[in-house]
Amino acid sequence: MEGKTVLFVGAGRHQRRAIQRAKELGVRVVAVDRNPDAAGLGEADAAETVDFQDTDAVIDVARRQRVDGVLTISADRAVPVVAAVAEALGLPGIGTETAHVMTNKIAMRRQLAEEGVPQPRFAAARTLHEARAAAETVGFPAVLKPADSGGQRGVFRLDSMDDLDAHLHAALAESAEGEVILESFHDGLELNGLVIARGGSAFPLTLSDRLRPPGVGFGVGWIHVYPATVYGAMLEEAERVAVHAVHALGLQDGIAFPQLLAIEGQVLVIEVAARIPGGQMADLARHAVGVDLVDVALRQALGEPVPDELCRPRFQQPLAIRFFTAEPGPLPTGRVVSVGSLDKVRAFPGVVQADSYLQVGETIRPVRLDGDRRGYVIAVADTNVQALEKAEAAARLLDVVVE
Length: 403
Fold this sequence. Notes:
This protein is an alpha+beta fold. The protein folds into 4 domains: 5-91, 3-Layer(aba) Sandwich (Rossmann fold); 121-184, ATP-grasp fold, A domain (Dna Ligase, domain 1, 2-Layer Sandwich), CATH 3.30.1490.20; 186-317, ATP-grasp fold, B domain (D-amino Acid Aminotransferase, Chain A, domain 1, 2-Layer Sandwich); 321-403, Alpha-Beta Complex (Aldehyde Oxidoreductase, domain 3), CATH 3.90.1170. It has 13 helices and 19 strands. The protein has helices at 13-24, 55-64, 79-89, 96-101, 105-114, 128-138, 161-173, 232-248, 281-289, 293-301, 308-311, 343-347, 384-395, and strands spanning 5-9, 28-33, 46-49, 69-71, 122-125, 142-146, 156-158, 180-184, 189-198, 201-211, 223-226, 254-263, 266-273, 319-323, 334-339, 351-356, 363-364, 375-380, 400-402. It has an 8-stranded antiparallel β-sheet with strand order 13-12-9-10-11-14-18-16. Strands 3-2-1-4 form a 4-stranded parallel β-sheet, with helices on both faces. Strands 5-8-6-7 form a 4-stranded antiparallel β-sheet, sandwiched between helices. Helix 2 (55-64) packs across helix 3 (79-89) and helix 6 crosses helix 7. The protein is globular and about 55 Å long. The mean pLDDT is 95.
């Protein structure tokens, strides 16, 4: 990889560390983001302020910079742009068709259904009339989502037609294509999967519990626990379904992020992303099984082989990730007056990594979106239960004063 040039589409907080890692591996980094203050732009060797929704503008940057590969980290909306740039320049990529079905929830659901992958009931809608018909098909409780958004934006639980009427406009507003999907809601254990595809063959790397808060933020993962607490036949089924979903969606070479739901002896697919996920999942892979997902993604973007020693688990280390969120998380709600040092958090036994995004003057709100996670603690221990106890205790050592 050394001496090659790679274009990062999106250069926010989640991409910053990946850009740093790419440079450590000897790669020249070009980055684009519409925000001139994006954290990763300052780390890149060449940076341009470009809205990545303007595909032609991103292709122009890629051509002028003579890039050898293109990728994104954690930005779902950038995945189709990355695929289009790769096709336009003849670079390795997942293909625009695969990118579409792995970023549009309706296309994804239909493809999974055709391939017999287990999933919730679903129906699509663009208008209130269609949405009410969809609700009749799906039933209540249901989940309402924009067809093409992320970060839990525009996601609502529906228990009645009144809920649908109240939230449909907000969900449609988050969709660039003006379309929503309704899915049947199921109580169960949500699982985060990491799957690596090479040459058309996929294998599971990790499965971890994705714990969520009660209330309106029910879709936000605020605690991750590895390894997952499912075991035996259920664990085997979760791994099988994760790989089946990746194959069904046509991902030949790439990192996939299937989110699953284990319920009543079966495993359902919630959705599958075609990228390194956010939420510190790359850190989970590094600390839990010793795999550097950024290294893997860079090699695939450059069309280089990814040998087993780089992408297969090297060990299994139980861990937990606790995000800094409002109550019942460790943070108070209100306008931030001061934020203490992370030294006490990082010094807590078992803590291997911690960071905070809190800034004086911002307002901490109850958890609603992924963006309400204002930092994290990662702790390791002999068991996942002990790791979670350590992460929880360490997270509460951060001193935050609000008005």
